[in-house]
Amino acid sequence: MPLPAILVGATTLLPILAKYAPALIGHLVGERAGQVAEAATQIITEATGVSDPATAASVLEGMTPEQLSIVQVQLASLAADLDKARLQHEINQAKIDLENTQDARRQTLELARMGSALSWIPAFQTVAVTLGFFGVLFALVLNISGVNALHEGFKDALLILLGALAVEFRGACQYWIGGSNAGGMAAKVGIQQAASNQRGSTEPTRSRSIFS
After folding, report:
1. Which of 18, 47, 63 is the last residue of a domain?
2. Is residue 82 part of a domain?
3. How far is CA 133 from CA 70, 120, 126, 172, in A?
């Protein structure tokens, strides 16, 4: 779907989704926004018999509570599927990051066994990042407290540098002591799966999936 169509589709759906399926609004951004908008539009069109969002909103207003609940369950099911897919993507990314870290550790161990000076690079890099991170943080604290006033442009540069160093510092911590991202994501997926199982067969089956 072309970008203008994605924007138009997502925008026209907002009033309906805000009222009947607010959990879907957060999914109307990103590379799958068009697919999400198309899937939500299909559900609403099939339920109301019209494709115009304004007319569909009027039809939804005139539905009985039972009819409206069916539409809301279908939209909620779509939102649950999207949440599950997002969590699974985060799990996969965490696993990739963990594998990369493990590969780097193995490489360092091999270099250490060979007696290579290159095995010290991760340690030197960690020390440099740690000193840089806390040094920039200390300078900003002094600026905030008024002890050492910084030029506005220099302060902005330090804030950007602090953000970059924070990412590197986190990576260094994960390298030496590991991280819990994968475990945390796995727990979230487990909770999501349990909720999906509890819903069971109460959710209507949609005619097609946006995840294929």
Report:
1. 63
2. no
3. 53, 20, 10, 12
Whether the full predicted model's pTM is greater than 0.70, yes or no, is no
| Three-state secondary-structure class, residue 114 | coil
DSSP structural state of residue 204: P
Q: Which residue is listed with tokens 């909720």?
A: 195
| Domain assignment of residue 167, yes or no | yes
The per-residue pLDDT for range 95-111, each reduced to its tens digit, is 887 777 777 888 888 88
What sign does the dihedral 104-107-109-115 (CA atoms) show? negative
Evaluate the CA torsion angle 74, 76, 80, 86 in order and state its sign.
Answer: positive
Give the tens place of pLDDT for each residue, 53-80: 888 888 888 889 898 999 999 999 999 9
User: Are residues 58 and 122 part of one domain?
Assistant: no
- Looking at the chain, list the stretches that DSSP marks H as alpha helix, in order from N- to C-terminal side: 3-20, 33-48, 53-61, 65-113, 121-145, 152-177, 181-199
Q: For the chain, what is the mean pLDDT?
A: 77
What is the extent of the structural domain holding 35? 3-63
